[in-house]
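Hi team,

As requested, here is the filled-out complex form for the FE2/S2 (inorganic) cluster run. I kept the field names the same as last time so the parser does not choke. Let me know if anything looks off before we queue the next batch.

— J.
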Amino acid sequence: MRRSIRFLLGEEWRDLSDVDPLTTALDWLRTVERRTGTKEGCAEGDCGACTILVGRMQAGRLVYEPVDSCIRLLATLDRCHVLTVEHLRRPDGRLHAIQRALVEAHATQCGFCTPGFVMSLAALWLDDPSPDEATIERALQGNLCRCTGYAPIVAAARAMSEDDEADRLRFARMRREAEDKLATIDASEPVTLRHGARVFHAPTTLEQLDALRLAHPEATLFAGATDVGLWITKQMRDLPTLVWLGGVEALRRIDETAGALELGATVSYRDARAPLVAAFPDMAELLDRIGGAQVRAMGTIGGNIANGSPIGDMPPALIALDATLVLRSQRGRRQMSLEDFFVAYGKQDRAGDEYVESLRIPRIAEGETFRAWKISKRRDEDISSVCGAFKLRRDATGAVAAARIAFGGMAATPKRARASEAALIGRPATRETFAAAAAALATDFAPIDDWRASAAYRMRVAQNLFERLRLDLAGAPTRLPAREAAHG
Ligand SMILES: Cc1cc2nc3c(=O)[nH]c(=O)nc-3n(C[C@H](O)[C@H](O)[C@H](O)COP(=O)(O)OP(=O)(O)OC[C@H]3O[C@@H](n4cnc5c(N)ncnc54)[C@H](O)[C@@H]3O)c2cc1C
Ligand code: FES
Ligand code: FES
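And here is what came back:
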């Protein structure tokens, strides 16, 4: 077992043993390393001012992702290649092509947000040398600017690959060298850090994780920390024992079989996007509206399920798709339908020593349709007021033969709309049938009423989704231009 974390900050090794498990990467960068180019705006993953690039070893190669360093814990940088805005400047002091493009497009005013934009654009620059406007907007969803306006920033993004050859060559060399250096760390070795009364464990196998769960049932498990990070930075909670799941390779598994898609619990939204969208094309819009690029790179689907939130975006879609969950502990595995996992507000069917291991999502069969819609006040970086997901099968006559419908934001848990399903099944797909199913929603739900949306609004907008579904099935254009899509 290793008692320190090792990673590369630019081209330099860092080997840290005295790490408070609750220290964020941002605090360490600014207060210890004095890398003050990385800014703190919100400290909750919303504004992107703290964005850094984190390269993670995957099958011997580094995969770079944009990360909100305000909620990324320092201890989880083990075996990573960390790049901050200071690393982009060329050795001769000249600006990187991305920075130059921002200057030339007048894409900065007070400048506070700019390092974050630079780093989000750097992630995009690595992934896609000539992104279209929609791709640029997706890459910048997690960055807020209060003074410049986004048009010049998007213009800079379009120009960022011009005259960037020197930067690409330098980056390729840095990446190769970092891969060679990081490959010298034994990836199978678990890490434990102690600091005063606090402990951080990073197991590398399921067996080690089982044993830790048994020994420390009180420990806080976490994966992407896009929820847990806020418990630290906003709720100031002390979490004396932390168990990080990100080092367990078996939990990052993606298996695509003929009948189903299986995702390990710590597969991030970013990694799940391609297989999910290939299997369920309608998932694209939903996934692209979860947080911003940083949250999608950090946050996991397992975390979205395990947190049990009534307004998490994945559970309604996954319940409609009839997904099953595998829970694991040292006692063995337990499989259940995802809808049965959510027992009541804040209560899931999970014993103290169990954790979410994986998720199995059956593929859509011939003749089945899947649709999922998120309704939120803003299009980007917003939590759902209501999220509705529908899986329907129609027979040769066009009548509805089967229906699974689930909603988030309508009850204390993500939940199926069984009365609405019953109102559809066996009926022709007419306006009257869908109106009856919408009306039946009042039997299924007494929606929650809070500052995000009133109960009446939630009911109304959820019922409207049935009309949207009917029109969609009839082939009518139901998608608004992307910018207006948030309001369904
Ligand atoms: C800026 C921002 C925007 C967001 N936008 C959205 C959004 O649009 N839609 C949405 O649904 N959510 C959103 N979220 C919430 C969050 O990103 C998701 O819920 C995410 O999927 C949580 O995953 P995680 O790995 O980060 O969870 P963590 O924070 O690591 O953990 C969350 C909870 O799950 C538990 N847990 C995690 N993994 C497991 C496991 N395998 N087994 C058992 N327990 C586990 C942890 O103990 C903790 O209780 C947003 C968050 C932020 C900060
Ligand atoms: S400081 Fe706002 S996202 Fe990190
Ligand atoms: S330039 Fe001032 S916040 Fe963006």
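Two things worth flagging: The chain has a mean pLDDT of 95. The radius of gyration is 23 Å.

Thanks,
J.
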